[in-house]
Specification:
This protein has eight helices and eight strands. It is of the alpha/beta class. Helix 1 runs parallel beside helix 2, helix 1 packs parallel to helix 8 and helix 2 crosses helix 3.
Length: about 220
Amino acid sequence: MSKGLHPGLYAITDSVLTPPETLISSVEAALRGGAVMVQYREKNAPMAERFSQAASLQAVCRNAGVPLLINDDPDLAKRVGAAGVHMGQTDGSLAAARRLLGDEAIIGITCHADLALAQAGLEAGADYLAFGRFYTSSTKPGAPAAPPGVLTEAKHLGLPITAIGGVTANNGEPLVLAGADMLAVVGGLFGGTTDDIELRAKAFERLFASHHPLFSIPE
């Protein structure tokens, strides 16, 4: 894995579970618990609010030495100096995002359960491939289901693999064993107190420490 990507918990924010008043404290708790990457995901707030939140998160993540990605908005990622962007299949061109953000940016692509989409993402210059949903997800209830085997099949593409969709520390083990390098988590991480979030993040850290050959806890 390269470009600052490391195996482990990929924390994704949510406008309901991490509202503006708790966004920063929630992400700080996830980082204390060992999250290796953060994604800011907010599609409905006014741009000024999104910019303010993303800029604040960028400062927090930079201080923690953890990449911040912006969901579906390369322009916002560039404005706040984020590490990169995550692109859905209907959210614009990966190639255009790369031209805007440069070669050093981290760009991930949603692949659902489709290896052809993953191959296309590889050819377009993605840095990691995201598959899912693997379990029932309250964040994306309409997303198509994905079998864990697609993670194993995707390993031949040679890029880091992310699994998303209803993932918790209790059900994530089969996904890591199947080949997931990162577990992208929303509901299974956020919600509750900051103590709850930190403890959940640490549970993911233990999961990776037990089952991912490249995982190491930073000193």
